[in-house]
């Protein structure tokens, strides 16, 4: 392993709209961010994990009106639920930004003034087909039968005085960047974006006079900043907060060495991979690095969304199945970058088949054997036992592959390798048959089992963020998971009591 001591990693999720409670689809993005952030931390990186809420815009104001409440009070209540969800899901974020925070608002206003001074923003009139729900204009070529291509709702004709961002001047630049650099992963999403949006790129209307609930510009208080220009800049403004671990310059300057990962669902890549890189370029900053994941779809094949009425409440699921179980399903069973099914049936199948049968049973079996054959004390491995040697070679290879997949952000492939790691250890038990073995060979086997359980548990700890603690407690390890702890020898350690890591779920 390399030394990552002086390296920094900045990971962000989209900031979510506080108009409704979050569903499992939102939890998916955040779970991936948490997984990769903990992994980097384990490698020795200094990490910063940003999430938050996107609070302005007509949709939110409408929702508050429906509820007959003051808008800020309304969103503040919903945000309590966001934070509760992240707590119950054991998400270790560093900063929760709200676009209604003063620091953010000030930043966005100043930024607008600067872009205006640099002539990247100009005033004009806009008329176009607009989706109120997605808060976006669409061109004729993007739509069919006057319906929003993203949510399917009816579009309206909007005309208003507006400031515009000179996006079209960057059309060739962004096309080239998308096709030839690493702004967007996975690569197959790039063509989609270029064909649907870049070829027809027009200047973006970035203020509204028809909306009140938003950030007013310093230049003209009748104009409120368009939500996306407001929201996207959270990734910069957060770095001005006192709690921020990194500074704006550190992260966003062109020569920055901070590794960056911005996780988004595929439906918002347009904003993150066209407008956002252009905004950054206008400001003289580096390019973003975005990973677009697919959607969670329900059994009937539809995207899970509030408007379709097929959402699953993650808080309810956590109560029944536990947070690690849900996070593991999301990371492992949804192929990163693709759409994937989510249902309770599939979740139960995964819990019983992988977490209980393979992983939890491995730990229980090993615990029972050491307690039976060695009075609960891990024996020393004194010999060069061939099955152990063969196992070690296989597992080292899996570990290397695991790091590679993680560094490539292939999350579902990474956890599949860890399951494979567990399977190999189980096979090693079948092969060495400790119940028929004795003497130094038995000692070598049991010592190896503990070592490899500890290794795989350490790697799994980035997703099984609660259950790994049971194994650490079993082995009296008080330290935080770290790659530097791997391959520790547990000879002479007295095993503590351990309960089942995962419980079988009855259908
Ligand atoms: N507020 C904007 C983002 C602004 S970022 C500068 C927004 N918010 S949102 O509340 O609608 O959340 C969108 C995110 O939720 C998507 O990027 C995606 O990560 C996630 N998902 C919402 N439904 C989803 C699924 N059914 N499946 C997977 N992810 C989904 O857009």
Keyword list:
507 residues; 4-stranded antiparallel beta sheet; 46% helix; binds 5'-O-[(L-methionyl)-sulphamoyl]adenosine; 14 strands; 6-stranded parallel beta sheet; alpha/beta; 17 helices
Structure report:
This protein is α/β, with parallel strands linked by helices and 507 residues long. The protein has 17 helices and 14 strands. The protein has helices at 24-43, 58-66, 71-88, 102-117, 171-180, 188-196, 227-232, 234-237, 248-252, 269-282, 314-321, 323-333, 344-374, 386-407, 411-432, 439-460, 468-474, and strands at residues 8-12, 46-53, 95-98, 121-131, 136-138, 156-165, 184-185, 204-205, 207-208, 224-225, 259-265, 290-293, 296-297, 340-341. The strands form 4 sheets. Strands 3-2-1-11-12-7 form a 6-stranded parallel beta sheet, with helices on both faces. β11 (259-265), α10 (269-282) and β12 form a beta-alpha-beta unit. 5'-O-[(L-methionyl)-sulphamoyl]adenosine (MSP) binds at residues 14-17, 25-26, 28-29, 54, 231-232, 234, 264-265, 268, 295-296, 303-305.
